[in-house]
Structure formats: C-alpha cells, structure tokens
Amino acid sequence: MQRITAAAPVFSPHTPGPVHCLTMMKRNNWFLYIIECTDGSLYTGITVDVEARYAAHCAGSGARYTRAHPPHRLLGFESHPDRSSATKAEYRIKRLSAAKKRQYAATLQRLS
C-alpha cells in the first residue's frame, strides 16, 4: 500500500471535526476509498487524489450519489498501482453488503 503523511487540517462543512490533508508520495497511484454518508449509507469510489475527491464530494461537486447523500466522513482508502486494479477492487467492494463493506473499511488506511 502507498504511504501517506498527514498535513494541516482542513475543515469540511459536513464533518464535525478536521479532515487532515493527504500528501501523496507518488501521484501515479490510484486509490479506492469508502465514504460514510450522513444517512448512514456508504459510497465507494476511486481517484488519484483522495483529498481533492473527498473535498469535491463535500462541496457537492462529486458524484451524483453524494450530492443527494452528503458525506459524513471518509472511512478509509487503499492504494492500487493502476486504474485497472482500482476499478476491479471498486467493483468487488460495491458487490458486498453494507455490513461487509463496513468490515472491509475497518481494514483500510485512515486519516490521522
């Protein structure tokens, strides 16, 4: 998995506390991430920049789903070497039940 470092806190209108910025060591990796929405539902996606994508979801300019179900918090993320492997992982995770997704999210890297 890709190593990241936490930077200065960024405040999101949809989260109760600070969300720490991510400094990506290698910009060519892809990341799978899971977001918990304010209604308790889960959103899974892929990106090359977790920080920017999460900010877009919080700002309402991310996916259509998160415009209707605003993000509450980023549950976690994992690194993949390319878009293909990230897309395959996303497909696999999206087929899981909500309970299984939460179990999987507990194994992902978290923001500090």
Describe this structure as you would to a colleague.
This protein is an alpha+beta fold. It has a single domain (4-105), classed as GIY-YIG endonuclease. The protein is built from four helices and five strands; from the N terminus they run ββββααβαα. A hairpin with a 6-residue loop joins strand 1 (4-11) and strand 2 (18-24). The longest helix has 12 residues, at 83-94. It starts with a strand and ends in a 7-residue tail after the last helix.
Q: At the third CATH level, what is the topology name? A: GIY-YIG endonuclease
- Terminal residue distance: 16 Å
Helix content: 25-40%
Order of helices and strands: EEEEHHEHH
Level-2 CATH architecture = 3-Layer(aba) Sandwich
Tally of separate domains: 1
Q: Characteristics of this structure?
A:
5 strands, GIY-YIG endonuclease, two-stranded antiparallel ribbon, single chain, alpha+beta, disordered N terminus, 112 residues, three-stranded antiparallel sheet, 31% helix
Question: What is the topological layout?
Answer:
Layout: E1 4-11, E2 18-24, E3 30-37, E4 42-47, H1 50-59, H2 64-68, E5 71-80, H3 83-94, H4 98-105
Antiparallel strand pairs: 1-2, 3-4, 3-5
